[in-house]
Amino acid sequence: MSKPEVQANEAQPKPRTRRILTRDDWIDAAIGLLVSKSIDAVRVEALAKDLGITIGSFYHHFKDRNELLAGVLGKWHESTTAQVVRAYGDLTLEQAMHDILSLPFHGETARRAAMVEFAIRAWARRDEMARQAVREVDEQRLAYYAGALQQAGFSKAEAANKAFLVYSFQISQALLWEVYDDKARKRLLGFTKKLLLAPDA
Amino acid sequence: MSKPEVQANEAQPKPRTRRILTRDDWIDAAIGLLVSKSIDAVRVEALAKDLGITIGSFYHHFKDRNELLAGVLGKWHESTTAQVVRAYGDLTLEQAMHDILSLPFHGETARRAAMVEFAIRAWARRDEMARQAVREVDEQRLAYYAGALQQAGFSKAEAANKAFLVYSFQISQALLWEVYDDKARKRLLGFTKKLLLAPDA
After folding, report:
1. Residue A67 counted as domain residue
2. pTM, two decimal places
3. Domain CATH for B44
4. Would residue A30 count as lying in a domain?
């Protein structure tokens, strides 16, 4: 990790060039361009222009564009993992499932996370590094849900099957966010939770 | 609909320029570029170059790029509707659900359809016309599944809830196609069918 740049001359006429830019700022800017345009639009020159800083500053933090892209995937993976772990923790299965199934409902934050995730999946269709990251995240989430369900008493096979449906619910709610209003979403959440948490038939 | 162009001089040295290009050929080429790159890459000049034909020929079929894009969405909507209707028809609910839930499994064709759909959803994040088309398709499929479930005896609310889970299953199987092998897919299909077709609790 490189040190952040400090350009602290208070009398400068261009305030944007005086920002302290961290590695994370570059990653966030890259995610912004990825979401609003596509991976092809994530170019060092475009980012530097958006951030009002020289291209040289970029190389202070990253060896090349590829390292920046790896940083984007790393950040996404990390926040994704944290999200899943936070959702379970010491909760009962019912609380945990409620939280996990409700993830796509948490307003603007969830909306934004869904857009980032969608953009990364689109990128993964054409890029091996992104494909690998998406696959790891998918497998990690599914294993996590299956583990929680198994711990709560479902058989291994039952837990794996239900984990897929939990994840399907999440993915589809995020994808179909426009189709349902809040009332319908709550109804679907209640129904799905009840269906998946019922004891083995 | 304009007439297809015929350039039938057998002695021509450039065979690609002698193809009979229909409106549908342009739409298919546009879908190809949409999937392999993104909507931004779908430009008349690039398509003409790929097809080995002059730009002028494009305007034989379409007023402008926007009409081509509308054609892409129209073709997708049509094939999507046909797919859904074919899946139900005169079948029993169990057969129909089996077919609908199996849609993401039909090898290369399903894989290609999923890629087209994904690319259109990505486009819909940034474009009103595409957004509208996606929303209509989503609502149409959900209404169709709900109708089939209701016809088979489930209450209206139950049918709407289950229709969402059927659609979630489809969407997620298409999205997570890499995560599961054939055996796991079959297991998930059997489990989900049984879970969703069980009578109201």
Report:
1. no
2. 0.83
3. 1.10.10
4. yes
Token pair for B143: 């209404």
| Model pLDDT for residues A126-165, shown as the tens digit of each residue | 899 999 999 999 999 999 899 889 988 999 999 999 999 9
Task: List the domain range (segments joined by +) for residue A148.
Answer: 72-197
- Tell me, yes or no, whether B121 and B145 share the same domain: yes
Closest partner CB to A175 (pick from B142, B171, B195):
B171
Per 3-state DSSP, chain B is made up of helix, strand and coil in percentages (nearest 5) of 75, 0, 25
List pLDDT tens digits, range A8-24: 444 444 445 456 789 99
Contacts A164 to B, Cβ<8 Å: 172, 188
Contact between B93 and B148 under an 8 Å Cβ cutoff? The reply is yes
Task: Kindly provide the ipTM of the predicted complex, given to two decimals.
Answer: 0.82
Searching chain B, which residue's CA lies closest to the CA of residue A142? B179
Locate A91 and state its tokens: 């909760």
Which segment of A4-8, A107-111, B76-80 scores lowest on mean pLDDT?
A4-8
Residues in chain A with CB shorter than 8 Å from the CB of B139 are 179
Residue B105 carries which side chain, given as an amino acid letter? F
How many contacts does A have with B, using Cβ atoms within 8 A?
85
What does residue A10 show for φ and ψ, rounded to 5 degrees? -60, -25
